[in-house]
Amino acid sequence: MPGMVKNYVAVIVIEAAIIVALWWFGNVFS
Amino acid sequence: MTILDWFVVAAYVGWVVIDGLRRSKGTDKVDGYFLASRSLPWWAVGLSVMATQMSAVTMVGTTGQGYVSGLRFVQFYFGLPLAMVILSLTVVPFFTRARVYTAYEYLERRFDVRTRSLAAFLFLMGRAFSLGVTLAAPAVVMSAILGWHLPATVAAICVPMIIYTTIGGVQAVAWTDVKQMFIVVFGMSAAVVVLLYGILQHVPLGQAMHLAGAAGRLHAVDFTFDATETYTIWTGMIGGLFLMLAYFGCDQSQVQRYLTARSIDEARHSLLMSAYVKIPLQLLILMSGVLVFVFYLFQQPPLLFNHSYDAQVAAGPYAADYRSVEEQFNREIAVRRDAATSGDREAFLASDARVRELRSRAADIVKQTTGDQRYSDVNYVFPTFITTRMPIGLVGLMIAAIFVAAMSASGGELNALATATIIDFYRRHWVTQASESHYLMVSKLATVFWGLFACVVAIFAANQGSLIEVVNRYGSIYYGSLLGVFILAILTKRATAAGAFWGMLAGMAVVLTVAWTLPIAFLWHNLIGAVVVVVVGMLISVLSGAPARETQRV
After folding, report:
1. Shortest CA gap A20–chain B (Å)
2. Does the distance separating the beta carbons of A14 and B81 come in below 8 Å?
3. What does the alpha-carbon distance between residue B267 and residue B330 come to, in Å, rounded to a whole number?
């Protein structure tokens, strides 16, 4: 995979992981 | 504030100005003055992009939002990473290859001068007034916290900023932004350490998080689909996506940042830095606000953080009522502290609800006494914490960071206003053939003009709450339409100049109507505006029977 495409995929994957982590965090501490 | 703190403030602001002036060496031509001769490394551009959005309002307002309503504001940025990817694939290569000074210059190449001038005019009007508001909001807060007169605070922010932006051009702006980002991250991290140290004296971290969570401060993701709700995952992912596409793709104050990069890939990397870092950074700032909330569960907070009207309330007809509320509040704080320490969730929530109700009653008394229906203390929470609870030296650093945040966010906008004025109007319409030195001189004059204009708006806006609202509404009215016209320019072959021009006007008319008649959250305005421009623009283009043209490859 070319360098920039890897970056784009990483951005989307990391954002999805942050949203899931925030949702989990909010549920654990509620 | 001690003498050491004031020394830190003066040293930091002085360093920013002197270093800005030093940057004027490479700015003896228009290309150097506005675009740093396209020579900046990606990391400096990336930090500059983030600093331009990290205004002083972010430092005082976002932490205040964290204190009052928790992490939910972070959803506003959920559309940003995807927007950065889309922009890296679309407008970044277009603008960089076109070697334009402004985003609107490209619209003339694709459509006509009428479309370019309208887009640049919308940017100038919207950005000039919002620059005033960007300066007014922190100036009001810092005036109250430091006990200064408002014009003095506005001058303390504007005068250094106008000096280094005028003389040093975009290089001074960008390198000030770089310094500022390091100071902000260091300062906010120091605040988190101080907060955690204070909290851990009373409860373990796990219990502190459970207290914040029980009070609803850690509820960051809201899946409710309600068009009137401002912050949900849907407004952030869809409305926020279109806002960020418009902001980073069509607003000269942002486009100009990445036009200073050395190459297309460096420009792309600078935007992707925001994609990676912006949400975690925003979480750090919001989390600071949440930790201030937990910190004040164990320390005595003031009844209200905004003391602007204390004397007026004490001498007013409701002074006795206010004192009574204050006494009840102090008793309730003790009850809440005991419940929080013992981990009694039900008692804590009941007491916290009473504390909120007492704060609300106190705010109502202030409003009744002063007639200021917009009274709020959200923006005063974090500055109060800084000036009363942080160690000597760090107080000065944080206050300096707030001042320089106001300068660095405004400096980029000021430079962009001067660029659009000179490139899209002065050099295009009025004086088309003149020397580099002439254009450089008028560019500096334009910078000074817009700086002074913003100061006047700031002083006026500070006393006109409704004006701030009007400016914000105006921004959401033209952003979507600007995005729509760039979509027509870059992604379609059939769109004609007439379609783009009338489509843009139709987009603004529809959003204006929606904004004043329907209770739809403002983030959706950007989506509506963009869709209307594209649909109307394409309809006019197709119905006018103009032949399809190649999307301009530049």
Report:
1. 9
2. yes
3. 54
What's the token pair of residue B499? 């379609």
Left, alpha or beta for B207 (phi > 0: left; psi -120 to 50: alpha)?
alpha
Provide the residue type at B262 as one letter.
R
- For residue B279, list chain A residues with Cβ-Cβ distance below 8 A: 15, 18
How many other C-beta atoms can be found within 10 angstroms of the C-beta atom of residue B376? 16
Rounded to 5 degrees, φ, ψ at B542 are -70, -45
Q: Residue B261: what are its φ and ψ, rounded to 5°?
A: -75, 155
A11: which chain B residues are within 8 Å (Cβ-Cβ)? 81-82, 84-85, 272, 275-276
Q: What DSSP string describes B114-148?
A: HHHHHHHHHHHHHHHHHHHHHHHHHHHHHHHHHT-
pLDDT at residue B549 is higher than 60? no
CA B328 – CA B284 distance, rounded (Å): 33
Q: Which pair of structure tokens corresponds to residue B57? A: 């309002």
Angstrom distances, CA of residue B258 to CA of B34, B281, B550: 12, 20, 26
Phi-psi region of B311 (alpha: psi -120 to 50; beta: other; left: phi over 0): alpha
CB contact B227 to A (< 8 Å) = no
Burial pattern B288-301, b for ≥16 Cβ within 10 A else e, equals bbbbbbbbbbbeeb
The alpha-carbon gap from A21 to the nearest alpha carbon of chain B, in Å, equals 10
Residue B26 near residue B36, CB atoms below 8 Å:
yes
Q: How far apart are CA B327 and CA B308, in angstroms?
A: 20
Which two structure tokens, joined as six digits, stand for B320?
């006795």
* B218-271 pLDDT, tens digit each: 998 988 887 777 788 998 898 889 888 888 988 898 899 999 999 999 999 999
Q: Do B279 and A15 touch (CB under 8 A)?
A: yes
CB B130 within 8 A of CB B475: yes
Tell which residue, B500, B510, B509, has the closest CA to residue B534. B500
B279 touches chain A (CB under 8 A): yes
CA distance B42 to B206: 39
| Residue B246 neighbours by CB under 8 Å, 6+ apart | B479, B480, B482, B483, B526, B530
The amino acid occupying position A5 is V
B503 by Cβ neighbours in 10 Å (0-12 / 13-18 / 19+) ranks as buried
pLDDT tens digits for range B186-202? 999 999 999 999 999 99
For B331-350, the pLDDT digits (tens) are 999 999 999 999 889 999 99
Judged by CB atoms closer than 8 Å, whether chains meet at B218 and A25 is answered as yes
CB contact under 8 Å between B219 and A30, yes or no, is yes
Tokens at residue B205, please? 């971290």
Q: Do A8 and B85 lie within an 8 Å CB cutoff?
A: yes
